[in-house]
Amino acid sequence: MTKSIIISGPPAVGKTTVAKGLANTFNLTYLSGGDVLKELAKEQGFEVDGDDWWDKEDGMKFLNQRETDPQFDNKVDKKLIELFKKGGMVITSYTLPWLVDDGIKIWLDGSHDSSSKRMQNRDDMSSKDAYEVTKERYDKNKALYKKLYDFDFGRDESIFDKIINTDNLDAGQVLEISKKTVRDLL
I need a labelling partner for 68 at 20 to 30 A (CA). Which of 23, 60, 110, 169 fits? Predict the structure, then answer.
């Protein structure tokens, strides 16, 4: 497959699960935009460990640092665009759908309550902490991307080929809908 696929959506909506499943099904390379950003955080001296790093104190500190210095996001997005254009990738990214014109773009939607429940189970957090972290990450990222790129993260869904509401679906169902979408758009 020569096209690349982008999976986007709010924090803890299931992007990684779907992206890895699509990469496996269609024999594509999986890449997490968040992992590329973590590498930059590591270069800044942050202790980066675990998938839940973004939800911990250091991850939130790095998010605060990104709010005042766009160099991190600009570097990551430049690299993601370059890799996306090569084709054969499944990339999770908050920003990439708005920065490229082609490929297959899937938005995973879900309520804040649903995302915080996923995070609570995934990261073994209290309900209150998961709710606060997902809300803060969503709100800060939304403001950051509006400032950097002038798009409305989570509101402007017109650029997506498919929008999947994940609230009443399990991961397998979301993956099956995503696979069908990709097959239909090839």
Answer: 110
